[in-house]
Amino acid sequence: MTKPINTSFQERRFSASDGLQLYARDYGHDDPGTAALLPIVCLPGLSRNSRDFHLLAMQLSTHPEKPRRVVALDYRGRGLSGWDSDKSRYQLPVEAEDVLSACAALDISRAIFIGTSRGGLILHLLAAMRPALLGAVVLNDIGPVIEINGLIQIRQYLQAQPALHTWEEAIDNLKRVHGTAFPALDDADWQDMALAIFREKGGMIVADFDPALIEPLKSMDANTPVPDLWALYQGFQPMPLMVIRGENSSILSQATLVEMAKRHPGMTSVTAAGQGHAPLLHRPDVIAEITAFIDSRS
Question: Which end of the chain is less crowded, N or C, counting CB atoms within 10 A of the terminal residue's CB?
């Protein structure tokens, strides 16, 4: 299996504030129909990249009535962005600054942001740093309380990645590791997930991120305190907010979701049936909710 050539987006390369070269995919930029509407900026999870959002971006950028420009980012150390020689800079404040650099480079002064997992944590920071940039926010399976056991699970499967020689092995491995939490996925979904997570290198199929990213997770155990982000969550109060929770999520608990709704009475809450952490957003039930939320924004 090889990744097909795709001309549905433009490749954007730009510099972070420290000079590191970063990458983004830009969908719908040249469609005059997208000019009058707020663009969408997609922020992936810890070890993920812009490819996670490809099918979602395709659908939103080619919407028959309200097409949107969609920009999906590769953070430093992921995908086609540069790996940082200073591994200590793989942290949320630096990545939030990188998002601001991306918006400046791509002429985005205000947008609807979709943040999956770590991307949603970055949005908590941006709500404090640059609230005027956020026209609306979608948090995908993340909130101000992160379940430590879920973080440990993420560390375990990222560390235990076996040697993969073929795309079929990569797909089978994903099903073995995540199948219980994602019974809703079909064969095409597993293939799409593999193409988003892995790349070919030296005749092997490897995870597409700098392994140094998971170093901070290695010292965690069940007693490790997790930061409380409720104060930052208050920054979402003035803006439309949707929160998506995977039905089988190990990161965002149902109790946290309920409390988030109490503190933001206008919040739209969505459960991704048959999915864990973090839900695939292009699945029909989820994308229908996202489209309805986005279409109600200018």
Answer: C
Between CA 261 and CA 197, with CA 122 as vertex, the angle to 5 degrees is 105
Q: Is residue 110 part of a domain?
A: yes
Question: In which residue ranges of the chain is pLDDT below 50?
Answer: 2-5
CATH of the domain at 69: 3.40.50.1820
Instruction: State which residues form the domain around 272.
Output: 9-148+225-295
Query: Which residues share a beta bridge with 12?
Result: 24
Split into its structural domains, the chain has a count of 1
Whether residue 161 is contained in a domain is answered as no
User: Would you say residue 25 lies in a domain?
Assistant: yes
- Render pLDDT for 80-121 as a digit per residue (tens, 0 to 9): 999 999 999 999 999 999 999 999 999 999 999 999 999 999
CA distance 122 to 202: 33
pLDDT digits (tens, 9 = 90+) for 57-83: 999 999 999 999 999 999 999 999 999
Domain membership flag for residue 168? no
